[in-house]
């Protein structure tokens, strides 16, 4: 556990998938930390000073030193606390590079396309983005088969870096189903990832930090209403 000279503080926001990624890493590593919930409409001086470039969460502050960007933070946690919990990044340099490649794919391709599908301005734009999202899911399904080698997780028998990277989307799979009747991963289109979602969510370390689906659904509804009101006011 973190303690003594290792003081950890996480600046986050409950609905941020990127902040959740860091929470997952800390949970799987079994590390204690102080959590600070940020109001992104009124960012704290600590957040602005800790992440002056992007001014975003998450920020992990370790012994007074800030680390920013969720993938960077997760890698830092694994390297700074090698004896805590399960090792997340593979020991083999090639496998480590592969894990980093697919983690970047999750953020830059899959997540970006999925966000476009939910936030598109027209039904046509949303439908096009959704089809693009499903094509990216198919690619990730094949990557899971290759990386897991028939075992339960991307990391093999235990959770690894890619499981944490993708685990940040687990609650949003359920939100998408609740709001739109559509799962990002499903048994017909991506059976391996669909089974992985339930397997990952059942882990104690994941259950300890995964946000409540109902709360996320209400958050999304509120944001949609605010966006619609703003659009109406500007038209």
TrEMBL record:
Compartments where found: Cytoplasm, Cytosol
Residue span, GST N-terminal domain: 6-85
Annotated keywords: Cytoplasm, Transferase
Segments forming domain GST C-terminal: 92-220
GO biological process: glutathione metabolic process
Molecular function terms, GO-annotated: glutathione transferase activity
Keyword Heme among record annotations: no
Reactions catalysed: RX + glutathione = an S-substituted glutathione + a halide anion + H(+)
EC code: 2.5.1.18
Keyword Cell cycle attributed: no
Enzyme class, spelled out: transferase
GO cellular component assignments: cytosol
Pfam families: GST_C_2, GST_N
Domain of life: Eukaryota
Protein family: Belongs to the GST superfamily. Tau family.
Biological function: Is involved in the conjugation of reduced glutathione to a wide number of exogenous and endogenous hydrophobic electrophiles.
Name of the protein in question: Glutathione S-transferase
Organism: Zizania palustris
């Amino acid at each position: 556990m973190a303690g003594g000279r290792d003081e950890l503080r996480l600046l986050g926001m409950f609905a941020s998938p990127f902040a959740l990624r860091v929470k997952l890493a800390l949970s799987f590593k079994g590390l204690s930390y102080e959590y600070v919930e940020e109001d992104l409409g009124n960012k704290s001086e600590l957040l602005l000073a800790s992440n002056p470039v992007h001014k975003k969460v998450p920020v992990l502050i370790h012994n007074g030193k800030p680390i920013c960007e969720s993938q960077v933070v997760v890698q830092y946690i694994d390297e700074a606390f090698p004896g805590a919990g399960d090792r997340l990044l593979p020991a083999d340099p090639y496998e480590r590079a592969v894990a980093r490649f697919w983690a970047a794919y999750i953020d830059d391709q899959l997540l970006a396309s999925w966000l476009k599908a939910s936030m598109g301005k027209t039904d046509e734009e949303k439908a096009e983005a959704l089809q693009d999202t499903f094509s990216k899911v198919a690619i990730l399904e094949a990557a899971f088969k290759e990386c897991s080698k028939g075992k339960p997780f991307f990391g093999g028998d235990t959770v690894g870096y890619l499981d944490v990277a993708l685990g940040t989307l687990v609650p949003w799979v359920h939100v998408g189903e609740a709001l739109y009747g559509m799962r990002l991963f499903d048994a017909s289109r991506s059976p391996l990832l669909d089974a992985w979602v339930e397997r990952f969510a059942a882990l104690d370390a994941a259950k300890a930090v995964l946000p409540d689906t109902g709360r996320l659904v209400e958050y999304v509804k509120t944001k949609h209403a605010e966006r619609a009101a703003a659009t109406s006011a500007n038209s």
